[in-house]
Design brief:
Distance between the termini: 49 Å
Number of helices: 12
CATH superfamily of the largest domain: P-loop containing nucleotide triphosphate hydrolases
CATH topology of the largest domain: Rossmann fold
Helix content: 25-40%
Bound molecules: adenosine-5'-triphosphate, magnesium ion
Mean pLDDT: 88
Length: 416
């Protein structure tokens, strides 16, 4: 069975159907041919991140010609998806599933200025990424540096940004900004306060002059992981800001590219895509687009899910709290993968969504039946009337997102 499409070659094997707690032979595939907006939800430890990993593995196993025209882009705020590069350490789990252990060639980017922190793990964390300070608006800066627009520092900042841009255009570094602050006639305590804040921004390592530009990391055929955990050095508002900028840039570039493709097609020409289709993965999505408050990533993500189908942009998100996710995003999803949820706001958010589409029994009915082990889910798609019970398949590569258990250290001491 293929959920959300009918092209067998361009679908991914996500698991097998179950009935009560019995696993059936029927394989379930998910369509990758059309763009999709997929939400994976469930309470803690029910297998959401693992499911995202399965979808990533399947995308990377599409036929070569399809893969060459798409990029998988993982915004990895927890730093757990690098382990796609390592074969599963539990190959026995794969018996009966018709798959073999495998490792996947992904490129992992980290904030370029934090290279030293990543030195010990450079085998799996490959390249630095960076941002030009000019990519941030004055408002972005005020948000990042936590400055109120009525503060004198805000006036000084907007003045020096304007001066620096007049002099250097888009190509300036943090050092140019600090120099302009030092040269300013503003009082020394305002200048010093602003310089201290910019010093902090330097420690995030994203304004380095040595890495790859954030919009240059997406090329067809690649699978890219952006490690925004930044070895713990990136505050949360920096992560959502980076995600917002990235999502907006990808959206704009891909939309333009789509228009170019359409023009060529009208003229009867075949043109190779210069900017690939994108499958964006976002774990813990409610932190990037929360309901109730606004993050810099909220509007770019809403735009992505609302308008992404025409240019060929897909989104796979996971969240423990669908009820805490901006409702404009949940309402645009065409596919829901629902792991076990407890009663309350989160079940209700998903239940509302299901009954809106299917007029079926309430979510609680399904949640009473779902087995307690991780990996069980109900999958539904707008195009079909059915809600399909699926046990998600084991991972071919290692899932680094499981719990750290104390016993691991016991084994370590015993063997040393
Ligand atoms: N389909 C599956 N088959 C076998 N084991 C699974 C499956 N899905 C998850 N697991 C196991 O369950 C554990 C929890 O999975 P995972 O980390 O994906 O949960 P999660 O829902 O993302 O949790 P959290 O909300 O804490 O992020 C992991 O150890 C993982 O290996
Ligand atoms: Mg998780």
């Amino acid at each position: 069975m293929i959920i959300g499409g009918d092209n067998e070659e361009l679908a991914g094997y996500i698991g097998r159907q179950f009935e009560s707690d019995e696993l059936l032979q029927e394989q379930v595939h998910l369509d990758f041919n059309a763009p999709h907006m997929i939400t994976v939800c469930g309470k803690r430890g029910t297998g959401k991140s693992h499911t995202l990993g399965v979808l990533m593995e399947e995308l990377m196993q599409l036929p070569r010609a399809a893969r060459d025209n798409l990029t998988g882009l993982v915004v990895d705020a927890m730093g757990i998806y690098w382990s796609l590069q390592v074969e599963t350490r539990e190959p026995d789990l794969l018996a009966d599933w018709d798959i073999s252990p495998d490792d996947f060639p992904v490129t992992v980017y980290y904030p370029a200025g934090l290279e030293e922190k990543y030195e010990d793990v450079s085998e799996y964390f490959h390249e630095g990424f960076e941002l030009y300070p000019s990519e941030l608006s004055v408002d972005d800066w005020l948000y990042l540096l936590d400055i109120d627009e009525t503060q004198a520092q805000a006036g000084l900042l907007s003045e020096v940004i304007e001066l620096t841009e007049d002099e250097f255009g888009s190509f300036y570094g943090l050092g140019d900004l600090t120099q302009k602050i030092e040269e300013s006639d503003e009082s020394s305590n305002v200048k010093e306060a602003l310089l201290r804040r910019l010093e902090k921004a330097k420690s995030w390592g994203i304004f380095s002059a040595s890495g790859s530009r954030i919009d240059e990391i997406v090329t067809g055929g690649d699978f890219v992981i952006l490690d925004l955990s930044g070895a713990g050095a990136l505050p949360w508002n920096v992560r959502t800001m980076l995600t917002g900028i990235l999502v907006r840039k990808m959206y704009n570039q891909r939309s333009f590219e789509r228009s170019r493709e359409e023009v060529s097609r009208i003229k009867g020409q075949f043109s190779e895509s210069e900017f690939p289709l994108i499958w964006l993965f976002l774990d813990e999505a409610h932190l990037f687009a929360p309901s109730g408050s606004k993050e810099p990533s909220t509007e770019p993500l809403v735009e992505w899910v609302r308008q992404g189908r025409r240019p060929g942009l897909s989104l796979v998100m996971a969240t423990q709290q669908p009820g805490a996710l901006d409702s404009r995003i949940l309402s645009q999803c065409d596919t829901l993968i629902i792991h076990r949820l407890t009663a309350g706001k989160d079940s209700e958010a998903v239940g509302d969504r299901i009954s809106e589409l299917h007029n079926t029994r309430q979510i609680s009915h399904y949640m009473e039946q779902i087995p307690k082990d991780p990996g069980y889910a109900y999958v539904m798609n707008d195009d079909s009337e059915k809600i399909v019970p699926v046990k998600i398949r084991p991972r071919q590569s290692w899932h680094a997102g499981g719990s750290a258990k104390l016993e691991e250290y016991l084994n370590l001491t015993e063997s040393s």
